[in-house]
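Now for our target.
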Amino acid sequence: MVTVNTELSRIDDTDDGQQQMLEERQKNTGYYNNYAYQDRAKRIFESLTDTPDVKRTYVVYVTPEEDANAAMSLGRVMSINKGLMDMMDDAAIASVVGHEIGHGENKDAIRGIRKSVALQTAVGAATANAGGLSVLLGNVAGNYVNQQVFSVSQEKAADEWGFKLLADAGYNVGAAAVAWRFCAINTAICTPMVWGKLSIPITIRR
């Protein structure tokens, strides 16, 4: 497991690990080839991360998917769905993105994947195929983001990050309530993952 943990840390903390995960995530989600969308996402993201409080470096891109979703994966890769950008204004999007940055700063993804059944499967496969550990873990991490579940305490900590980043960047912090309420009501178009896979009553309280 020492080798596995070392490799997971490489994927999560290094530039080449980030590039590996960016390619893996874009293979899974697709890349929305529209400059205006990509530029808007980058602008919002950079407005939130332009602070000494954010210690890690990230990459962000827009997927062509139509549901209201965003996710932070291992490797500090942020994906934002086209659907989310179509449904919300910059401030509301920033509230979602700030929350996901919180997960990134708290390293919630790597903590979760280290406990996952998928990781144990990858370790077994790597044992039978020495040298393929990096590829296997990249595949596991790329798919894990679709099943990851954060605890209530992790979600609250990410919420606190989101509010702070919103305020520091000059956005109206009330946009967070607008975003949460929108997806509490429109559950059919808001993927549960972005809201922490919590129940609707908990989402409304947030």
The radius of gyration is 17 Å. The chain has a mean pLDDT of 79. The CA atoms of residues 28 and 142 lie 7 Å apart. The beta strands are 59-63, 70-73, 77-81.
